[in-house]
């Protein structure tokens, strides 16, 4: 007989308070963070931009999934470093 282990399901609750047009104060569980724009874009530079936050989340997911896959295949990853560079370019396409 095969035993199937059900995955743990976690309901995620995220709250965002937006005191200015550029700054968002995020609360998740008992952890808080700020997402903001740099002063050059009329922000207060109190945290990473939304795009930087998205790329950071991708890095974090890559870390978690890499370690899970390695463990499944009997490989021990002691540490890893992931670097990302985003170079947003203006669109060459125009809407008429």
Summarize the structure.
With 96 residues, the chain is of the alpha+beta class. The chain has one helix at 50-72; strands spanning 14-17, 24-28, 31-35.
Q: How would you characterize the largest beta sheet?
A: 3 strands, antiparallel
- Beta-strand percentage range: 5-15%
Strand order of the largest sheet: 1-2-3
Helix content: 10-25%
Number of helices: 1
Poorly predicted runs are none
Radius of gyration: 19 Å
Order of helices and strands: EEEH
Task: Categorize the overall geometry.
Answer: extended
Q: Averaging pLDDT over every residue, what do you get?
A: 91
* Strand element count: 3
Question: How many domains make up the coordinates?
Answer: 2
Distance between the termini: 63 Å
| Class by alpha and beta content | alpha+beta
Reconstruct the topology from this structure.
Blueprint: E1 14-17, E2 24-28, E3 31-35, H1 50-72
Antiparallel strand pairs: 1-2, 2-3
Structure description:
- With 96 residues, the protein is of the alpha+beta class.
- The protein folds into 2 domains: 14-47, no CATH class; 50-83.
- Helices cover 24% and strands 15% of the residues.
- It has one helix at 50-72; strands at 14-17, 24-28, 31-35.
- The N and C termini lie far apart (63 Å).
- The model has no long low-confidence stretch (mean pLDDT 91).
Throw out a few tags for this protein.
alpha+beta, single chain, 24% helix, 96 residues, extended, three-stranded antiparallel beta sheet, 3 strands, 2 domains
